Structures are given as structure tokens and as C-alpha cells.
Amino acid sequence: MANKKLVLDDFFDDEEFTLIGIHSSLEDFRLAYLINKHLQSHLYRKPYDIKSDNLAAHYSIFEWEDQEQLRVWNLVSNTCKVEIQQQPDTRDSLFGTSKTTKTYHLLPEFKRVNYVLKIESELPEQAQKLILNTIQDIKQVVMAHFIDADLLKSKENLIFN
Predict the structure, then answer these.
(1) Which of 17, 40, 82, 155 has its CA 20 to 30 A from that of 117?
(2) Backbone angles phi, psi at 134, to 5 degrees
(3) Which InterPro entries match (predicted)?
(4) What span, in angstroms and rounded, lies between the C-alpha atoms of 161 and 159?
(5) What CATH number is attached to the domain comprising 86?
(6) Could you tell me if residue 29 is inside a domain?
């Protein structure tokens, strides 16, 4: 049987997008609301989450298709915490099963980033800085910064469609 190999390097060379890492302890829907309010965007929660390869992690995703500028905005959670029940090693355990929490990251290279804002299409540098400064002005956002896509080893996790 023939194997097919998908090379994603060509896809990302042609695709222009801006990535912004957002550090905030807000829930995803609150952050999307505040971004909508401050940037006059219309991010909405998609009916499905992004599932990772291990199938245990699900990342919430918000999307806005800006018809005027022909851009697609995606706000994605970078962190997923999954509670796992573990069976005790001995049968005479006092506590029965124990629960542990495992944390997964959409972009493992940026574990401290809580959310990633991906804006597809080429943006002028001035527009990028305006968006970043506006997000930084949201008082519930601790920090926001650009992420260089060339430094990512997990670029394939940024394909949402």
C-alpha cells in the first residue's frame, strides 16, 4: 500500500498570518467579548472545539470572518486541563481512586501563553501594532506579544479549517 506524505512547509510559506500570544486568566468567552468590544470585531464561539492528536485535549475556538477586509480571525485557547482518574497500585488503598490533572498545550513552545489570536491574511505593520496595543490596553490582559511563526515546531496545530 502506498503511503502519502503531507508536507506542511509549503502551506505555511504561502500563508500569511499574524500570531499574537495573550496572557490572561479570563475565561475564553470573556476575553472574546472584550476583544470584540475594544477592536469592534465579531468573534463567535464555533460549535466544535479543536481536538489534539492525543484526543484527550480540546481547545476552544472563536472565529470571525471579516468580509470587508477579507480576513479570518481565530482566538484559540492554548491550554487544556484534563482530569484523569488513576487506579491505586494496591488493593488495600484507603482512598480508592485518585484524580490527577494533566495540562496540554496547543503550542507547546509557548506554555505560558493562555490564548493565541491568529489573523489570516497579510496585515500592514501599523495595523498589527494597533491591534497589539489595543489588546494590551485591556486591563484584564496581563501581557500580549507577537509570536514568530518561524520559531514554531508545532505549526500544524494552527490549521483550524
Answers:
(1) 82
(2) -65, -40
(3) IPExxxVDY_fam
(4) 6
(5) 3.30.310
(6) yes
Q: How many domains does the chain have?
A: 1
38: pLDDT strictly greater than 90: yes
Radius of gyration of the chain (CA): 19
Place of cell 470573556: 30
Contact (CB, 8 A) for 153 and 43: no
pLDDT tens sequence across 63-120: 999 999 889 999 999 998 888 777 665 555 566 667 788 888 888 899 999 999 999 9
Is residue 8 in a domain?
Answer: no
134: burial class by Cβ within 10 Å (0-12, 13-18, 19+)? middle
Comparing C-alpha atoms, which of 45, 112, 104 is closest to residue 75?
45
Range(s) of the domain holding residue 29: 16-158
**137 in a structural domain:** yes
In a domain, 11, yes or no: no
